[in-house]
Amino acid sequence: MMRLPWFGFHSPKSIVEAAKILAAEGPRAMPIAGGTDLLPNMKRRHQTPATLVSLRRIDALKKTSNGSGAVLGACLTLNEVAANRAVREKYAGLWQAAARSRPCTCETLGTLGGNLCLDTRCNYYNQNYEWRKAIDFCLKKDGEICWVATASKRCVAASSTDTAPALIALGASVRLVSTQGERDVALADLYRNDGIDYLTRRPDEILTEVKLPAAEGWQSSYWKLRRRGSFDFPVLGVAAAVKTARDGTVEDARIALGAVSSRPFLTKAGELLVGRKLNDDAIAEVGRKVASAAKPMDNTDLDLYWRKDVVSEFVGYALREIRGDDMSATRVRIARHDLKEIQ
């Protein structure tokens, strides 16, 4: 049985109090909300914080507001995000990402902020301590070599958040709060392409809320590839958001990728759609462009070359859904993991 290591625990009732505790405790303190990723990592000795600062009792982190855009508290559970009517009607890509993020227990406990700050994953890292010790530890934890790319000077563990690509495509930003003040950061800028130092959030900062811009004229979609339809982290996430004029001409478009790099990122392919309509030729061209930006590594489930090959297909699914095509049968097929039929 894997046991949790000893740690101190605080349960503040305000953001200000939590920020003061994090500042006082130093870098070895970590915030915890749902704990669906952090606690298993602690059991495997991936992360060993001396102190945990629980955010669950802070009501300010669970609020929502809707105006021209929307503000979502970071401690809303993924179930609460998916159940939010405004999210489902205005930000379909985020709704799809939250609804398909993890199994029921994690959707109930896991939070939006926690999913955005999710640790990067790798087949050589996400193992118990004894397994990792037996092969010699990896660069991400306790070792000096990346077992995926042995010549690499940096860790290539993959980002596995579902909500981040969807929110990046939607143009979202996040608020970070510490005793030194507050700052708003475009969500795309929250991440580094580094499997170890993957967040620009400082250890003393708390991610308090997600801000979404106005949705007028925009439609969005999120598609996820995983081996099992009910549990797995993504091995590919494709998010698209498109703003169209009344005649169907694209005025703006964003396409983001997840799980094919150490960070979720915005591609430049959306620019190819501006001034055009979402016809099959345009969708195929954009799919090829996005696929060229995907750089999956052999550090997660399924063959990396196949995962790269299907990127263009998933871009097509997302854009055709935005166009108004009925993609329900394709979603069912993927949910049933009929992976051989994707191409």
Q: If you had to describe this structure to a student in words, what would you say it looks like?
A:
With 343 residues, this protein is of the alpha+beta class. Helices cover 30% and strands 19% of the residues. The longest helix is centred in the C-terminal third of the chain and has 14 residues, at 280-293. The protein is globular, with a radius of gyration of 20 Å. The chain starts with 7 loop residues before the first strand and ends in an 8-residue tail after the last helix. The mean pLDDT is 93.
Keywords, please?
343 residues; alpha+beta; 13 helices; globular
Gross morphology is globular
Q: Helical segment tally?
A: 13
Largest sheet: 5 strands, antiparallel
Order of helices and strands: EHEHEEEHHHHHHHEEEEEEEHHHH
Head-to-tail CA distance between termini:
42 Å
What's the total number of strands? 12
Q: How large, in whole angstroms, is the Cα Rg?
A: 20 Å
Look at the structure and give the mean pLDDT.
93
Q: Which regions are unreliable across 5 or more consecutive residues at pLDDT < 50? A: none
Adjacency order of strands in the biggest sheet: 4-5-8-6-7
Find the structural class using helix and strand composition: alpha+beta
Q: Tell me the fraction of residues in β-strands, as a range.
A: 15-25%
- Helical fraction: 25-40%
